[in-house]
Amino acid sequence: MDAAAAAPPLSPRIRATAAPPIPAARAWAARYGGAAGPLLDLTQAVPGYPPHPDLLARLAAAAGDRACAGYGPIDGEPALREALAADIARAYAAPIAADDVAITAGGNLAFTMAMTVLAGEGEAVLLPAPWYFNHRMALSMLGIAAIPLPCRAEDGFVPDPDRAAALLREHPRARAVVLVTPNNPTGATYPPAVIARFAALCRDRRAWLVLDETYRDFLPEEALPPHPLFAEAGWREGGVVQLYSFSKAYCVPGHRVGAILAGPGFRAALMKALDTMQICAPRAAQAALAWAVEALRGWRAGNRALMAERAAACRRAVAPLPGWRLDALGAYFAYLRLSEGAPDALAAAERLAVEAGLLALPGPFFGPGQERHLRLAFANAGLEAIETVPARLRAALG
């Protein structure tokens, strides 16, 4: 008997969930012969510089500390919650307390647990499209419908609250609206007034507003505060939830530390998900990060400037290419529209990988209607590498 045919069935939700896109794209690189120079991997949002050496030393010390080997508080180490609360209060010019913060084992798990708390099977969530593929995958696994909230290139990929209002009327079982700013995959940053309009809409419709602000550390100083919501006295009862990740700003994606900011009603329910899905976030990383939040503020500012340089280099590199256009750019990402003569995004991305050693993610990995776009995660590339992008595009796509 064929073993595969005899195997018991897997979860229908898992079967309906798309495969992880980045390994699929990287598989193309196995066919690259090296003619265009070293492989340039712009598929994953990874910091292209190491953690601060003092942070590495503290991570090593904490990992060897017997105290960090046991279970910790379900919602995170108090020192890290206090440090993050103070950092958010500074960035958003708002009174934030440690009691508003829960620490999670990474940003993706923060999203999954938030959705677990907010919606159930047969209910729905509005997700800006193009979307971050892991958000879509998490909703599929949970049996929650993802309703695309279309974001258009002509609007700078900023979502329209009026369009969201129409979708909420059309889908009465929608329990939340998700916003990702600065956005993954496009890099677009949503204006504070737009975010405020979404908050008002969600209050009126008794829906939750979930703000994924993983990349907020890379906003320019003049863009702070990113929105006014936390300065409003009723935000904790008004259905606002913020998601955050330490992976990018502190260069520690392998240590899996994220956070959720929310009011007491949400956090009380969240404790069930926290205890079930993680018990506690990694304790050694929490101990080191509690020190780093304040101590490395200057270092983080330097890295923000470095990312801005790479974004500018990306803009300069693409500008002379006839027919190509950056429809959005910011934080870690450039969202590049293909020239008219290029094939669709899936074919173009494969050809770039195989013929020019340039790995980028095609737009269809981020949802419907993205056949003419590529996402370039430039954070992982130095200025010299970014300067090679035009030649690689020409070599593979003309």
TrEMBL record:
InterPro entries: Aminotransferase_I/II_large, AspAT/PAT-like, PyrdxlP-dep_Trfase, PyrdxlP-dep_Trfase_major. It holds the Pfam family Aminotran_1_2. Its cofactor is pyridoxal 5'-phosphate. Signal peptide: none annotated. Keywords: Aminotransferase, Pyridoxal phosphate, Transferase. It catalyses: L-aspartate + 2-oxoglutarate = oxaloacetate + L-glutamate. Residues 50-387 form the Aminotransferase class I/classII large domain. Its EC number is 2.6.1.1. GO terms for biological process: amino acid metabolic process. GO terms for molecular function: L-aspartate:2-oxoglutarate aminotransferase activity; pyridoxal phosphate binding. This is aspartate transaminase. Belongs to the class-I pyridoxal-phosphate-dependent aminotransferase family.
